[in-house]
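Repro:
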Amino acid sequence: MLIPLIALLITGTVLGFPAFQEGFYVYCDGDTLVSFYNSSPTVFDWDGDGLKDLLIACCEESGADKIGTLRFYANMGSNEAPEFTGFTRVQADGEDIETLGYC
């Protein structure tokens, strides 16, 4: 099942708990970025260019199997207005990193 990715940014704290701004959809190639229901997104500068990129651990279906993968979305915009244009799967020794079953 695919679901849209919604970002929640922390704006500070209230009574020691994180306070969030209103959520917003994340876009890729002009469309709402969708990922699998049990995805785990992380935002940080993966490629060392000073821009915050998006790395998503997700569980994809391949026939009857479920395969855990890592998707890398490079930020081609800015940290204030990120732009993502597709993804590449994270690899090790030239092979996509995959796990069997749920990730």
